[in-house]
Amino acid sequence: MPKYTQPRKTWQYSNEFKVKAVQLSLIEGIQVQDVANTLDIHPFMLSRWRKEYREGKIVADKRKKLTEATRKQEKEISKVKKLEAENKKLKQELDLLKKWQGFLAEEHQKGIDSSRNSDKS
Fold it and tell me: Cα-Cα-Cα-Cα dihedral of 37, 42, 44, 48, to 10°?
């Protein structure tokens, strides 16, 4: 094996990159492993950044404007929330219709039973 004369290259990530990675991993329903694989970093590194972010060692620059990707994420999140609300409403309507259908079937059955009883008399 060849002997390495120079030290291995260590990657330096910008504070902004770390913050964006952490924020992506904090989105509900997204796993740290998936974000790490997408960004081609080790999941342990992302977990460490998340810890540093919670401790305040990594801070987002508040002066930066929202990027197009962040705006797109916010739109997607609001769209999902709207769809979830609509889904909930539709499920309630479906339950109500099922109850109404059961009630009508019961009433119809009572009508059939009462007509059979009056025919027997």
Answer: -100
